[in-house]
Design goal:
By secondary structure, this protein is mainly β. It contains 1 helix and 7 strands, in the order ββββαβββ. Strand 3 (33-44) and strand 4 form a beta hairpin. The two termini are 25 Å apart.
């Protein structure tokens, strides 16, 4: 079974209901930073750059590693939720800053209440 967790917008917590994020690849890097590619179900519709059905998640704080995401985010983890700008690059393991845009700051957790945050 694929690793999955819940996702909310940590910038604007009420902007959409929590979503399920499923890890599709856990070996993606943006420069030197490791992250995970996820699908988002249902896709987030109300974003300025259009719907978001897949994203690159990168740990946002020091002391948090990609292992926290690979392990199913047993505790809440703040992440950068990044849109890959060229769909063809979504399958690449190495991305550059020019390949993505930060869509919002997210919070993920294996618990549906997101550690009491939602």
């Amino acid at each position: 079974m694929a690793t999955e967790f819940y996702l909310i917008n940590d910038d604007e917590p009420g902007s959409f209901k929590r979503r399920v994020a499923r890890v599709t690849r856990d070996n993606v890097r943006l420069g030197k930073q490791a992250g995970v590619m996820v699908t988002i179900e249902p896709p987030i519709e109300n974003l300025k750059d259009g719907p978001l059905a897949a994203a690159l998640l990168l740990p946002r704080h020091a002391g948090v590693s990609v292992e926290d995401l690979r392990g199913g985010a047993k505790r809440p983890v703040s992440v950068f939720v990044c849109r890959v700008l060229d769909k063809a690059k979504e399958t690449e393991n190495q991305l550059s800053k020019e390949d993505v845009s930060i869509t919002f700051w997210g919070l993920v957790s294996g618990s549906p209440d997101l550690g009491g945050r939602r």
